[in-house]
Design goal:
The protein has a three-stranded antiparallel beta sheet, with no helix packed on it. It has five helices and five strands, in the order E-E-E-H-H-H-E-E-H-H. It has one domain. The two termini are 40 Å apart. The chain is α+β, with helices and mostly antiparallel strands and 225 residues long. Helix 1 (40-69) packs antiparallel against helix 2, helix 1 (40-69) packs antiparallel against helix 4 (187-214) and helix 2 packs across helix 3.
Length: 225
């Protein structure tokens, strides 16, 4: 099936020096007047737009982790282990921290966003996975330490008796590259489930804004803006 081409189009122009983005909207090739909306509903919609993008990015980063790990995933059933391929797993760690951070942002009050998600909006079957994701985010990606996902210690190695050499001092550091759910919903399933919340909210708010704030005022009103 061939999709019908939309009569509407948008062109983005970025100022090289300032980085400011301008959007030019057109209908059937004719440039349209752009009128920003600043109602409470519009601000809520803008907040969900940011949340949706964060969750979409988080899901993409989890998918990228699976690609990078490749056949290593087959070894997960054996339990915890450490890879010697630090170049590859440093990238895995960076993506995992980024995914946790962006997931956590969706549930935190952020300046510039009028909305945030709540745990109660999730289906009950995802609550355990959500709690783990937030715990990992708080301890691994933010505050550190409480969940034993990383640890640093200093120790000495005492040579065998009779060896005439002083003890040697070592710095020990353990830090997880990533974590997975041992049972229940996976983080990938959780992120996909939560992503649907802002998607639905955006559709709902778009209809509400058009039906209650835009269309009732008529074309002449907006033409004067």
């Amino acid at each position: 099936m061939i999709e019908a081409k939309s009569d509407w189009s948008v062109k983005e122009v970025v100022e090289p020096d300032s980085g400011k983005v301008h959007r030019i909207y057109s209908y059937k090739g004719k440039v349209c007047k752009r009128i920003p909306l600043d109602s409470q509903l519009a601000k809520q919609l803008a907040g969900y737009v940011l949340i949706e993008k964060d969750l979409r990015s988080a899901s993409l980063w989890l998918s990228e982790i699976q690609k990078i790990r490749g056949d290593d995933a087959l070894l997960d059933a054996r339990g915890n282990r450490r890879s010697s391929d630090r170049e590859r797993y440093n990238v895995v760690k960076a993506l995992f921290v980024a995914a946790l951070t962006f997931y956590g942002k969706a549930f935190a009050q952020a300046e510039g966003r009028r909305v945030k998600l709540e745990r109660r909006q999730l289906n009950a079957e995802f609550h355990a996975a959500h709690d783990n994701a937030i715990s990992f985010r708080n301890n691994f990606a933010a505050h550190s330490g409480a969940k034993s996902l990383e640890r640093a210690r200093v120790a000495i190695a005492l040579p065998p008796k009779g060896k005439h050499t002083p003890p040697n001092l070592y710095r020990e550091m353990d830090q997880s590259d990533w974590a997975m759910q041992q049972e229940g919903k996976t983080f990938a399933e959780l992120f996909s489930h939560v992503h649907l919340i802002p998607v639905r909210k955006m559709a709902e708010l778009e209809r509400k804004i058009m039906d209650e704030e835009v269309l009732p005022l008529g074309y002449a009103y907006w033409e004067k803006k």
